[in-house]
Amino acid sequence: MDITAELPGRVMEVAVQAGQTVRKGDVLMALEVMKTRVEVRAARDGRVNHVAVKESDEVRMGTLLVRLAP
Amino acid sequence: MIYPETRYLFSGDQYLTVEIGDDMTLESNFKVLGLDLAIKAAKIPGLAETLPGWRSILVHFDSLVIDVDALVAALREAEESGAGAEAVPSRLIELPVLYGGRYGPDLPYVAEANGLRSPEEAAARHAASLHWVGMVGFTPGSPQLKFLDETKRMSVPKYTRPRLYTPEGCIGLGGSITAIYPVVSPGGYQMIGLTPVPIYDRFQSLPDFEESPILLRLGDRVRFVPLTPEECDLIRQQVRECTYRISIKEETVTLEHLLRSRGAA
Amino acid sequence: MSAPALEVMEPGFLSTVQDLGRKGYFAAGIPPSGAFDRFALRVGNLLVGNPPGEAGIEMTLMGGRFRALRAAVIAITGADMGATLDGAPLPRWEAVPVRAGSELAFGVAQTGCRAYLCPAGGVDVPSVLGSKSTYLIGKIGGVRGRPLRAGDRLDVAPGARATAGHRLRPSLIPSYGSEVELRVLLGPQDDHVTQASVRTFLSAPYKVSSKADRVGYRFEGAEFQFRERAKAVEAGSDPSNIVDDGNAIGAIQIPGGKEAICMGPDGVSMGGYVKIACLIAADLERMAQAKPWDIARFRAVAHAEATAALRDSLARASEASLVK
Fold first, then answer.
1. Domain final residue pick, C157, C174, C191
2. Tell me, what's the pLDDT at B250?
3. B117, C14, C27, C125: which has the fewest Cβ within 10 Å?
4. Annotation: CATH topology of A2-56
5. What is the rounded distance in angstroms from the CA atom of residue B174 to the CA atom of residue C235?
6. Can you tell me the ipTM of this complex?
7. Interval C101-118: pLDDT, tens
């Protein structure tokens, strides 16, 4: 499952890495969107396949952030 | 210096900056204060409000009501009228301060930077001078104050990286300018103490805030009164109960007298 | 007699009640606030028969969900957030009747950044220091000085007359892109900056950063070089320092020569950094619709053009612009 950015901003912190297991609601990363900290959470349980961004990357609407398996 | 000729500068299309000089001296500030009074008295049509500062006045106007050239002409006329340049209203206001301790963690550094033996000495020096409000703004009611007694003046650099958090009521020193933080905000001034008295009362619940939610204005003189922690708690209680009365004396000062008397009226 | 008319189910990213702003407190450090896109608020109000300066809801980047507690007439203006009324597309720039129990939903702004929800009669919140506008730093105005929250019930004053179906002339509907031209007047401290930097400022693309909000928009791009000048005592050691003076709304500061920061409606009233230029009043509404990573290009204009642009913006937001 692809988790993409809903809003345009900058990556502040990446809280997970590839291979990590996450539960629904876990914080995957924090973005700065218009001076507001926005947390990106796992929509369901899974395992992080791929983290597509790193700290201070610019993200736009639709930018891939994290790929979760399954 | 005060410029030989006042500069009138565009600040967008709805504002003009009237710049009388480039420093933070009492002379410059006094000229600004006098000019601001003269501009207000002139009741220029289309002029919405003025924001006086250390050495300039930001004039907000409606460009659809008054032509820029007509506005500048009216402002020059106000300047030439010289009204208010001699004596200006100036209130003497007492603000109690708990120096040092938890809310003044930088007081030891201020003492050291000024060759003083102890933080207590730095606090005493700060409180021994009257302080002149030369500008208000940035956050609601936040003043910038200047030592009126040159012999007591202290100076410190600001933080190289501003803090993310400054508590409400914090007294800060940056350069030799004292600032008071009316609301929680980031900040770069050295924290030397805290006043339990609000300088921004958004609900206007304290008796002295009936006319305005902000306490201080340009031209006010502030006496910082050192407190013990117990006295501070008592005042906090009175503030919470909305009974605390601030000591405010309406006076008039002339520049000449101010310089001679170090701030006393 | 007001009654609760709108319930906030979800507030969205940042929604606040705004009218056309607070006057007379700038010297106190309280900025005007008010709708960032004044054109959109004015038109929204006119569409529902309100005076143009009535209070409405400003939604930022991603709007929320609202339930109508009674029948009302509303207008949505500004950014396209894919507005729906009970699931069906809700047209913008038009007065639309809603029934009691209807749900209004807004998503992410596809174009633009800020949308306005204007109910007939206007949002009825207490006036603080002469305005209903929310000033977040000062915690005054709007709903108790804060953004809207789920569960808020907003009163709406009774509307003046039925205007359902009124819409803005299609030719006047603004279109928002990912590039925006922002017109400025140079100064007051453009003389502190090298000619080359001024030329770059007026030709190079600047990117809206993620640090952009009602207080100000930061733009990333070519840095600025300062001219050699005698330093004013007490201003500070950096060449971008000046003795603090007043900031116009729209003033563009360049601290350290690194970024251009343009003051928005909640802009701080004074600053100690060189101001290279100021946005013209008419273009605040353009900046209001820019979002992070959009490209801005600054163009210098003379005062006469700025005044004409303001007159034009006001003319476009008038009764004559509506199709009834």
1. C174
2. 96
3. B117
4. OB fold (Dihydrolipoamide Acetyltransferase, E2P) (2.40.50)
5. 11
6. 0.95
7. 999 999 999 999 999 999
Chain C, nearest residue to A31 by Cα: C210
Q: What are phi and psi of C212, to 5 degrees?
A: -140, 130
pLDDT at C235: 65
**What is the pTM assigned to this prediction?**
0.95
pLDDT < 50 positions in chain C: none
- Count of pairs with CB atoms under 8 A, one residue in B, one in C: 159
Residue B46 buriedness (CB in 10 A; 0-12 / 13-18 / 19+): middle
Residue C20 and residue C133 share a domain: yes
SS3 of B192, please?
strand
Q: What is the pLDDT of residue C71?
A: 93
Interface of C with B in 168-197 (CB under 8 A): 184-188
Low-confidence ranges of chain A (pLDDT < 50): none
User: Between residues 101 and 160 of chain B, which touch chain C (CB distance below 8 Å)?
Assistant: 135-142, 144, 158
Q: What pLDDT was estimated at residue B74?
A: 97
**Is the CB of B22 less than 8 angstroms away from the CB of C243?**
yes
Residues of B in contact with C246 (CB under 8 A): 11, 15, 17, 51, 53, 56-58, 137
Q: Are residues C168 and C220 in the same domain?
A: no
- CA B176, B178, B180: angle at the middle one, nearest 5? 160
Instruction: Identify which of C108, C209, C211 has the shortest CB distance to residue A61.
Output: C108
Structural domain including C144 reads 3-174
Mark yes or no for CB contact B137/C233 under 8 Å.
no
Residues of chain B with pLDDT under 50: none
Domain assignment present for C203: yes
